[in-house]
Design a protein that fits this description.
- 38% of the residues lie in helices and 14% in strands.
- The chain has an eight-stranded mixed beta sheet with strand order 1-5-4-6-7-8-9-3, with helices on both faces.
- α5 links the parallel β4 and β5.
- It contains 13 helices and 14 strands.
- By secondary structure, it is an alpha/beta fold.
């Protein structure tokens, strides 16, 4: 079977993370040296706070009123009400049977992923057990510390070849992944930067095959926001398996990136550790214990905001509605605008329309790398993210364009890109 992915080792994963960092260094230096020259930042976007958050009781959300279950610093695993609502919403969506014991609040999905990998690989005293296989594309800076500083063994399988669908379409395409005998498989659903959902039938087979081999499957769902019509995770109750760890955050969906709050959904044995199969809630073992020693529990304001938003989401689901539907429709209009503009531009070889999130990726016909193109565009006042930090090859000349921006900025940025490609 033809390989539809690029296989990377740990050193190559670090190189991708460093390319991501190099871009950020370039734009920070450029902005510092040329204040006011950037006219449009379409490299990350700014999702506005939803209007539903600005209602009566705002001060209560911000912590003026304490829960009767909040004592001093609160529970290490997060507020019980917050965790109950996460379980409730997930059960409504997927027909699962999660309880509060399956949920722990984390300092963002990224942080939760690092702590989860430490736990499932039994990282102790500077040593870990087994290998991690990452099915990309995804943001590789998430794994830099684990590879470089913790010495964990990683491999990546990036489905970014130009003639592929940018995801595995059958379990057979992942034979090499399983043949490498990993201890954990990481899936980003939907992927980053393309916003393509993992085929749910394939994911179900991956989970089943992994469980048979005592392999954990970690699913990073941070990109699962603003899905296209008829698109989504498409889970059922099968997603609740003892070897599955799910990680998510409201950062992108509800503009809470500054709160650095997310959650992990897993078997309590993974959240808290266990002794001969017996689980005891504690602050020092499991994913929660690993988080506790570094970060501690989420601030009151973050829990209150999550409670408010999850209650709204649960109500919408009960009524057959979609939360923040108007805002999502506006984002889709912006997505369609970017795609229509790219379709008319010279030298655009491929456009990857997203199924979710707020990015469009496009491959440019150029003899320059993606970072070199980004640097050229900086000089013209536009910030675009090179995709080589996410699993593309630099010579693919692929850029990530974020459409979560004001209309004026979006139009101006696309005009700059069109002018550059027309030269």
């Amino acid at each position: 079977m033809k390989r539809m992915y690029h296989k990377r080792n740990g050193e190559e994963i670090k190189q991708m993370a460093r390319r991501f960092d190099e871009y950020h260094t370039c734009f920070r230096d450029f902005v510092s040296a040329n204040p006011g020259q950037i006219k449009a930042s379409l490299d990350r976007g700014t999702i506005a706070y939803p209007v539903e958050m600005h209602k009566e009781g705002q001060l209560e959300m911000l912590g003026s009123k304490r829960s009767d279950r909040s004592f001093s610093y609160g529970f290490e695993e997060g507020d019980a009400k917050t965790r109950e609502l996460v379980a409730e919403v997930e059960n409504q969506k997927h027909g699962t049977n999660y309880s509060v014991d399956n949920i722990a609040i984390m300092p963002g999905a990224w942080g939760g992923l690092e702590f989860a990998l430490q736990e499932v690989l039994n990282f102790r005293r500077g040593r870990s057990e087994g290998k991690v296989a990452v099915i990309g594309p995804t943001l590789y800076q998430m794994f830099y510390t684990l590879v470089e500083h913790f010495g964990m063994d990683f491999e990546a399988y990036d489905f970014t070849k130009s003639d592929g669908s940018h995801r595995p379409e059958s379990i057979d395409e992942l034979d090499e992944v399983f043949d490498s005998n990993p201890k954990a498989i990481v899936v980003t659903n939907s992927n980053n930067p393309d916003g393509i959902y993992f085929n749910p039938d394939v994911l179900r087979e991956v989970i089943k095959k992994a469980e048979e081999r005592d392999v954990y499957v970690l699913v990073d769902e941070i990109q699962n926001c603003f899905p296209s019509e008829s698109k989504g995770l498409d889970y059922d109750s099968w997603i609740q398996a003892p070897n599955v760890v799910r990680l998510d955050s409201q950062s992108k969906r509800y503009a809470l990136s500054d709160c650095r709050v997310g959650w992990v959904i897993a078997d309590p044995k993974i959240l808290y550790g266990h002794t001969n199969g017996d689980v005891h809630v504690n602050r020092v073992e499991g994913i929660v214990g690993r988080m506790s020693g570094v970060m501690g529990n989420a601030p009151r304001v973050a829990n209150n905001l999550l409670i408010h938003l999850l209650e709204n989401e649960s109500t919408c689901l009960s009524n057959g509605e979609k939360p923040f539907a108007d805002y999502a429709n506006k984002l889709r209009e912006k997505r369609d605008f970017v795609i229509s503009q790219l379709e008319e531009m010279p030298r655009v070889e491929a456009i990857h329309a997203p199924e979710s999130c707020v990015n469009v990726t496009a491959r440019i016909d150029s003899d320059k790398t993606d970072l070199e193109i980004s640097q050229d565009l900086m000089q013209r006042g536009l910030l675009l993210m090179p995709a080589s930090g996410y699993g593309y090859n630099p010579e693919d000349s692929t850029l990530r364009i974020t459409f979560a921006e004001r209309e004026q900025k979006l139009e101006g940025g696309m005009n700059i890109l069109n002018g550059y490609l027309s030269e």
